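Working notes for the structural subgroup meeting. M.R. asked for a predicted model of this chain before we commit to crystallization trials. I am recording the input and output together here so anyone reviewing the notebook later can reproduce the run.

Input as submitted:
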Amino acid sequence: MIRRRFMSRIVNWHLGVRNSNSPLVDCDLGPYYASTNGISEGSFCGYLAGALPRVYSTSCSKLSENPHSSDHASDMLTDSFGRMHSYLRISLTERCNLRCQYCMPAEGVELTPSSQLLSHNEIVHLASLFVSSGVDKIRLTGGEPTLRKDIEDICFSLSSLKGLKTLAMTTNGITLARKLPKLKECGLTKLNISLDTLVPAKFEFLTRRKGHDRVMESINVAVESGYNPVKVNCVVMRGYNDDEICDFVRLTRDRPINVRFIEFMPFDGNVWNVKKLVPFSEMLDTVEKQFKSLKRVQDHPSETAKNFQIEGHIGTVSFITSMTEHFCAGCNRLRLLADGNFKVCLFGPSEVSLRDPLRGGADDHELRRIIGAAVKRKKASHAGMFDIAKTANRPMIHIGG
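Returned structure, recorded in token form:
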């Protein structure tokens, strides 16, 4: 059965069926200053000592038309600010085979008992409610999603949902290389691999584990398997890996790799400090000094990254600027945590359980009501990095990457 459906997907891909949903939008690109995002000039900008003279942003005259015409769908997933949420991130597990310093404390975190995590059937049931209501992209996260023993079955079940166009996964790449052929067969269409350093010894320091060679192998296997682009996520921290930015950019020269530089974000247990934060403007200046032909690419209004192309490079370079230039106005993302809690904002502490009512016998109408009410409570934007750092939230390992 898997093979027959896989062949059908290949035919659809060649016909352009799965990739025909990218509407054109009318966007203006121009200078943007961090102070317009509500960041305290006296605190952050003072610390940077004028490091934000030129920052890029996307200003869109209107968001793309909602492809889901049913009033029921648009109402459940549209918040009070008119944002339609078509992207669901599902954390499959809280377990991980690394101990990244920006993700969890050295001693690890207390994990939710297995019996309280969502089962395969529960994940698919809840995902089907979202997809039937307008979600067309699902990303699987963790913990480390490949540690879930039924990961292939989950991928197959989710990729079979009518209306889902993209099934993506974010992984640390430790076990990906050997699992990727089956995952692709089961419907995995996009891939992000986390890698914060190209130096093996530094990798062991940052992750508190060995495995750099296995991550590099996974990137190579992903490229060879036809993923285009293979996205490489790099959290940049001052004094740790900020000296490797241009080395990462060189990965894009000859292969379809999209390197995504991510600003260091505060979560419980990761000892966030603004002095570790390398702002987007500084990263951009570093790249531009060595790659003069760096040019901005027009982005979709719901895009989290600011994307750039370098002349002669097959791949691309992106910056995720959650701290210095938030992109909340175009946010279309929701999160389902491994324990069944539903979260409408990565940085917001508010959560509501979908597991408990599901196990308590709630029907789909009631589950939709709970989801819709939570979406309506979503705020216009997150509180800003200094307030986020002081707000109780879960460790990233619990929330999902």
